[in-house]
Amino acid sequence: MTSPFITVGELVGALQSSTRPVIFDASLVLHSPGFDGDYRRESGYPGWLDAHIPGSRHVDVSGQFSDPASLLHYTHPAPPAIADELSRLGVTAFDDVVIYDRTGTIWAARLWYLLTWVGIRARVLDGGLAAWQAGGHDVEAGDSPAWHPVATWDAVATREAWITRDQLLARSVDDDRPLVCGLPASSFTGTAPTRYSRRGRIPGSVNVSSRDLFSDKGTVLPDAELRAAYDAVGIAPGGPEVLLYCGGGISASANALTLAQIGVTAVRIYDGSLEEWSADPALPLLTGV
User: Fold this and answer.
1) How many CA within 13 A on the CB side of residue 206?
2) CATH for 245
3) Which of 278, 273, 274 is nearest to 76 (CA)?
4) Do 274 and 205 form a contact (C-beta atoms < 8 A)?
5) 84-116: per-residue pLDDT in tens?
6) pTM: predicted TM-score of the whole model, two decimal places
7) What is the dihedral angle through the alpha carbons of 113, 117, 120, 123, rounded to the nearest 10 degrees?
8) How many domains does the chain have?
9) Do 128 and 10 have their domain in common?
């Protein structure tokens, strides 16, 4: 099994090879809500300007890699739209891509999920920019020379990667696919303020906080600890497909990333997540433990 992560040492080696990977900084700052409905985010571009891995380029997942026609924040674009954006950024269908961020890996995970969905060989830098700097490697500041677009190329989905609200509502009572919420426990139980319309969790779901799957330094936990976290809610390699949600499909992408690390790749993300679900008062939400 190939890890979806790349270490700093492996990236240094790759950058010295004849087939250097493209490096994207996918950082975006999403603030914790101070009250229900408090949705605030900031571009990660200023932070990239201050310090970034040499040769990297900042990309905006919320703009460049989300559907502009959707009323929700991060609905995935169609594969051709992803390919068109990549070609504009100078990425061909055959390039290797390394993604990192400075904001807890969730944004890097989201871009990884999108790119691997259309067949791009993408990996996430374990520990992000902090790990790069901790390894004693130089960073750059300021803007970089413009990247030259490449010819457009065709992209198709390589797997079933998404589940909709209607598909969730239509699940039969004997559907054994686990539904996992990737938000922190306080959001799952509704004890913390939410960015969305109502607090709580989708009935029948279990909780594996994606942020708890990374160390204080931002590196992914050892495989044994990842397996234990998922095994506690009945998820293991070889089991049924796993359905993932969170607030808007971002933390759920970090669940998908960590599941891939332990060999669980049959997953689908509910893009609308609680942003869409909570906006409909007719749909149930549970609170408490």
Assistant:
1) 15
2) 3.40.250.10
3) 273
4) no
5) 999 999 999 999 999 999 999 999 999 999 999
6) 0.97
7) 20
8) 2
9) yes
